[in-house]
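Researcher: Hi, I'm a grad student and pretty new to this. My advisor asked me to get structures for two proteins we've been looking at. I'm not sure of the right format, so I'll just paste the first sequence and hope you can take it from there.
Model: That works fine. Here's the first sequence with its structure tokens right after it:
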Amino acid sequence: MNALETQDCLIAAGDVRDGPVGMVHAIRPSAMGELDAVVGEVAARFARQAGFAARYGQVHLLPGADGTITTALLGIAEQADGTDPFVFGALPDSLPAGSWRVSAPADVQAADIALGFCLGAYRMPAFGRDAAPAAPAARLVVDAGGQAAAGMARCINLARSLINTPPNLMGPDDLARAAEMALAPLGADVSVIRGVRLAQEFPTVLHVGAGSDRAPCVVEAHWQGSTATETAPLVSLVGKGVCFDTGGYDLKPPSSMLRMKKDMGGAAIMLALARLVMLRDLPVRLELRLGCVENSVSGHAMRPSDVVRTRAGLTVEIGNTDAEGRLVLCDLLHAACERQPDLLVDAATLTGAARVALGPDVPAVFSNHDGTAGVFVAAGLACGDPLWQLPLWPGYRKWLRSPVADMNNISSKPMAGAITAALFLENFVKTDVRWVHIDTYGWNDSARPGRPEGGESLGLRAVYEGMLKIFNIEDRLHH
């Protein structure tokens, strides 16, 4: 399924023409006693005897009197704070071909059902001789709210597909072209900065990419909503697009390098978020900056103990060439701050330390404005895309000192790696700019309902919903 094409796993209610429409009943474990009333005594007894217990993501098909299957059961989580669209991702691969509706408890939103269904129907790009796995034949019947969720799913699946693309097919130029293809048709002014101009404006991006035959570049995009005035909020998005990270001279071990095609996950997520803002035509002014680069080993690669001068004029000693992401981001953040945005958000697959602290499913969020961080955390919990705040602890700033430069790109201590990385970035953000930094994993280690193994857009929906709340924007399509 191409993430930029029509989400063909959905069908509008008015377009259903032929054949019966099946019904999926979403059941919580606590409602198993009501199963007789939902599907009838005989069918309920059959389901229980077959082992249906409404476990999370459990799908059970109920045959009718003629042997056809037009009824199914889906186990969902007990009522809790926030939403969980992912459980409905178990349906596309479990239901027979045809059109289906979902009956769910009143507190489950139709948009979450449609979103989860679309996310479960996602197929990773295939590059082998054999055909790609067929898209699920089951389709979900939706109303207008459900159709709007397809736009969100397309953006999430765009990020997934970019991250999943093999690194030989997703170099800096490929990522830049993907950004142009995603944004230019929606009216964005997209430019790609290379060569001499890159050296002048983004010297640290150039320094990181110096070791690769695939030259680095920076994508800049500018867009304004159709109802946005010149005084509308300016939102600036920044993404780390390291298309492959060997670690440079501080070479990663083979096991750590296997997934390094995902090191451009921050750029993929910010690109997908920018596309979503444009599709929803939010009343904002939007800027996007992506640092597209490859961290390789060669005679031209950056070395440990190099000193590089940043766009901001600060000098950085390279303590470790595998801490390249913060070097990619620092010039982009400084460039964004020159425009004095009302909100600056960056995303990056930045540190293993964040994963040690919070695991793969919960990105770490840092902010120079605690109230803003709180909005993002609350929004993430409410939409089922959790974030968790870690502190910009000032006591650790001295760990980044260098005897030969203004700072080192790594800490002198083997602790708090996610915090010290964020503190490094803070040096390049104006104190009066509201800034949010997201350290995300960008990957699903194993397949779960609605979350196939591979690239993932962790943090995208949380940032989008947080943005709506910060600027008090009503997203009519979504809500």
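Researcher: Oh nice, that was easy. Here's the second one.
Model: And its structure:
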Amino acid sequence: MSSKDWIEKDFYAVLGVDKAASADDIKKAYRKVARESHPDHNPGDPKAEERFKAASEAYNVLSDSGRRREYDEMRSLFGSGAFRRNARGGGQPGGMPFDVSDMFGGGGGGDRRFGGAGFQDLFSSIFSGGQAGGQAAPRGPARGRDVETEVALDFGDAVRGVTLPLTLRAPGVCDTCHGNGAKPGTQPQTCPVCHGAGVTTRNQGSFSFSEPCRNCQGVGTVVEEKCPECHGSGGVTKTRTMNVRFPAGVADGQRIRLAGRGEPGERGGPAGDLFVHVKVRPDELFGRTGDDVTLTVPVTFAEAVLGTDLRVPTLDGAVTLRVPPGTPSGRVLRARGKGVVRRDGQAGDLLVTLDVVVPARLSDEARTALESFAEQTPPAAREHLDARVRRVS
């Protein structure tokens, strides 16, 4: 990324966050924009693809605390309206006529105090690691960007673990030129301007200014005959399928990292990582709390009063639970070891909540029997409530 890009591009606006946004806010905003503009969700939409690329570029800078701090410093010093353009192409700090090229020699001639060096030269020397009187380091291998995607799993697959094929449409190495950007049968040539260094250095009086080579864009090589598939970029947007193992007990909202499965690196650099965000579909019977599986079972009033044996399902079979006589509605029974299996081999429990069902209608016989039961049953202990009612009446 050039110095000009860092000045002109507002990465915060791309993600729709404030400059003071936290790292978590930036991550959430990026995930939202990436989901909405992902090429898989917007096939054939070039604007969505550009927005997706812009969001990835912004997140690549703002997610790194060091690069974000450097970006903020540059924007504060040179960007965000610090120099407003005038008719000559210069700027007007504080509303006074001022051409930045007058200060740094951008319009020819230059200020002798800076050896006639241009603004871009000075800027590159400050922020690209150049040192006065020395040669700036050439651009070396660059790590590829991380890729994020989302996968929905059934409840049972998430609990037991599953291996699924995952299809991604993302930038990858061109299969025709194998990433070098050159037409098959040819090779990239050493840049004749920088001689492979990727940077050019100019001595201006007492100073030495370095900047990325404009002829090769800092790569150190040039492609004379470009690959017909990728047009010299070395990468294409491609569809790839891989098998992904989701471990037993993976939870809703969990993120799985697959090292080296993201975008390929540049100039021989390592590939980025693939992060898979897991969404677990709700089950019609079971729920989950940590490593415990939850289940609600309706019981009749008679079963709760007299007690009974219940046969209930589990994730891998069924168990029988004893309901003690006089069990109230809402009591939780526990089937140990019937929950989610943890990595250490231990398992959570199945928690069964009893729900006493009150019938909406009764037959004449049932009503008569219930009235007889009520006459023989001691009243509920409500003396403390009755006392309060008498005081407020």
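Researcher: Is there anything I should tell my advisor about the second?
Model: You could mention this: The radius of gyration is 34 Å.
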